[in-house]
Amino acid sequence: MDGSEANRPYHAKKPHRKSRSGCRNCKTRKVKCDESRPTCRACRLRREACAYPLTSTSSPPKSPSPVPIPSVPAYSASPPRETQIQERDAVAPAPVQEPLFIPANHDFTNLRLLWHYSNHTWSSLSTRSGKEPQIDHILKVRILEHASANPWLMNGLLAFTAMHKKFLGQDAPDARIALYRANAFEGYRKAIEEADPATFPALLYGSLLLCGVSSSMFRYDEAQPLYVLDWLLVWRGIGLIIQLVTREALHKTGIEGLFFRPKVDSSTSAMSVPSNLLFMVTSIRSDDDDFASVDTLYSALKLLGSLYGELERGPGPTLNLRIITYPTFLPQEFIDMARKRRPRAVVIVAYYLAFTKLVSGIWWVVDIAEKEIFNIADLLGPKYDDLLRVPKAVVPLSDPKDISRLLINNHTWEPPEVDELRVDELVLIPNAPEENAHAPIIGNFPYRVPREEPSWYK
């Protein structure tokens, strides 16, 4: 050592406290973590998903005997109160790339599902996702906030995400999906009965999410025939939940953007109804059992006509949204007729199913038509073969152009180019009670409950 080095002053290494509870990313990179939650500074700068290791508790060891898969519990970490969430919903901050909530008492499977939802599944809850930042923020951030305060909604979100993974061919145990689904519907029903205004945003999310969750039944080999008739009842739940809140209260939640649909021009739509379906209704005689329901059947036909009219304008985002929201327009009396297997109502449902084969980008609508159209044909028998000729012919087709040409009966038709959603034609799903609605009172809020529950609710 030379003299210059010997005379150099010694500086002790700057002491620092080791972090034992930093996030996984910081531990992997062996850097200090500031332990900010939900996202530490390092992960925020790197735009990475920030996850903290699960904290252990001093609980006694459990026996190795098998136990049922637990439902998603209420969180041990203090979640934001529902009322606080409502206040924050009024002004949406800029979207973030990672989920806001990674609860400490979720098992690894649940955490992986949350990651999959935040990165993949969220976009399939709206035909407008990826195009409107407000919609993206609602689906990527707001729904997770409300799910953190409502375990039944978290169960629904996990069920929906597990279904998506299964659809993609990834591992997703049916037992998990079934349990998540059962817990979600049970909690949803209880929340409706309690009618607590603080949970209305969660109920709105749930009414949409559970339409997707309930579509899983179409994909099971043992699914009951004509399950689509129960599925229509679930779709009606969206309008029923919206009727629980005033339009002003809905606006304050900041999530009303999810509940818009293309408006229907009844006079124009009526002109687009196929002549064979129109004759099916106009030929009803006074001694027919359906004579008292002619107006109901005609209303459903005009709604179907809006799909035909939209298809003529060209496949695109507006047709997508119109097909998906079709059940939300249907009168309750029509759904009752279909669930009672009244032939004319069921024929109209078959034509709607044919249109679902044109939906793109929404995985949970895929394949719902294939079995159900033939189930309807089996129910109605040879007498209705001619009326069902088009829906049955659509089933084996996969090319949207071929399906469209068959539906509109024009084999030289070429689809116009349609790229943008016609936002100016969107209207909020009505929240005013319909005439002659069966409306018992739950608490201080009118809620029109179905006269008969879907069989899988029971």
From TrEMBL:
GO terms for molecular function: DNA-binding transcription activator activity, RNA polymerase II-specific; zinc ion binding. SUPFAM superfamilies: Zn2/Cys6 DNA-binding domain (SSF57701). The keyword Lipid metabolism does not apply. Residues 22-52 form the Zn(2)-C6 fungal-type domain. The chain crosses the membrane at residues 345-366. Residues 10-24 have a biased composition (Basic residues). The keyword Transmembrane applies. Keywords: Membrane, Nucleus, Transmembrane, Transmembrane helix. Gene3D superfamilies: Zn(2)-C6 fungal-type DNA-binding domain. Pfam families: Zn_clus (PF00172). PROSITE patterns: ZN2_CY6_FUNGAL_1 (PS00463), ZN2_CY6_FUNGAL_2 (PS50048). SMART domains: GAL4. It comes from Lasiosphaeria hispida. Residues 61-71 have a biased composition (Pro residues). Residues 1-24, 54-82 are annotated as: Disordered. This is Zn(2)-C6 fungal-type domain-containing protein.
